[in-house]
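Quick log. Single chain, no ligands specified.
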Amino acid sequence: MKIIVMGCGRVGLQVSQMLAGEGHEVTVIDHDANAIARLSPDFKGRVVRGIGFDRNVLLEANVETAEAFVAASSSDNANIIAARIARNIFHVPRVVARLYDPLRAEIYQRLGLITISTTTWGAERICEVVTHTDLDVAYTFGRGEVSMVVIEAPPQLAGRTVQHLSVPGEIVVVSITRDGQALLPLLGSEFKEGDRIYLAVIPSAMDRLEQMVGLERRM
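-> predicted structure:
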């Protein structure tokens, strides 16, 4: 996949190196030589020096053939401008913009632009960690409407079925990892002690999940 990442700060750096490590064709845009210098010597992507919303810079980065564009600079304004140019002018199929201001993120999401607000995500993650200390929230979807929770099956779950932890519209058992192998469970699949269970959960069902697996809520 051909991906352009604008911004080589902490987020852009990690995203670029992770994507390149997965075998994607990554081009990094940044005007700061010091930021670009932080890329790993093993980074196999391209680097273009310049402003990420400059037309000539984007063309040099081959935006016309890009399949995805990530605006991850430290400026909300620059990210939004670059993301809109990539999507509306060059018609890049997948465009994501990192925004610090959650209010702006909501506005642009309504316009159909995918945004990631570190402020909102961070606040949601902190709340989950503080209020549900026994549940490991591995990932959140959307604006926190659904969380991916990972638990290790306690002894009391052994022999019970997936249906025991399933609540339509609230809690879904997505996968089970057992002896290093992942499987997609059926409602009749039985848990074994030590299983790692991956569940998709809505926030209002967190307390219910803790009760169902026998975890005490810590206040």
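The chain has two domains: 2-118, 129-212.
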